[in-house]
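Hello Y.,

Per our agreement to keep a running log of every chain we model this quarter, I'm adding this entry. I've kept the format consistent with earlier entries: sequence first, then predicted structure.
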Amino acid sequence: MQILSKDVSGGHTTNIAPQLTFRGECRAAFEFYAKLLGGEIMIMNTFGGSEDRALPSGSVAGPAGNVRFAEVRFGDNLLRGNDLNDDAFVQMSGFNVSLHVHSTEEAKRIFGGLAEGGTFATPLAEADWARLFGMVTDRFGVPWLILAPDE
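Predicted structure for the entry above:
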């Protein structure tokens, strides 16, 4: 989910993390991910209460309860997200959040949790390159790739 790399030109660390977009469900999704994956919500800013902070150019404020920016941490990994207004929201596609776990039991537990209310493109099953592999889109519309490497 996150890549840390050393910038050879200046010694700075670069942080790459998925930024997921939701249609008013960011808070519910991040609370679900934190519980399912054992993470901690680090930031959950809503549009209400942050009116004094300027929006980026081209952005439009959402309803007060919608999430302006959220971040959930899982060890060294991050997911970031926010809510978009209906007219700006586009269903996520063309990528997966890839999650590699340490055991088949953990893969089954997480895949099952993500599949509740969602749909799966590839059922969790053995593959030539992994003990278990599966692809699921959760109830929030986020596509996941779950893999338990050879043990």
